[in-house]
Amino acid sequence: MLLTDTGVPERYIDTDEWGGDVMARLDDGWCIALDRDTMRCTIYENRPWVCRIFEEGSPECLEEREQLATIYR
Ligand code: SF4
């Protein structure tokens, strides 16, 4: 979810069912700004605030990883 204006390009912004601005996703659910070859953010300098505070290795991060591991097993 885009809570502040960090300069995310308009073409990467979608609207959720409640009318909020969110990062657009591809059909498989991955963020549209992710370079799938390098697994790096293509808009790193302008990434959303929530992406900036999401701590690598945090409980939330590990939970997301576990869910992804389940999906791609
Ligand atoms: S940090 Fe990840 S989730 Fe956030 S905009 Fe970049 S690719 Fe998307």
Automatic annotation (TrEMBL):
One Pfam family per UniProt: CxxCxxCC
Protein name as catalogued: Zinc/iron-chelating domain-containing protein
Organism whose genome encodes this protein: Pseudomonas turukhanskensis
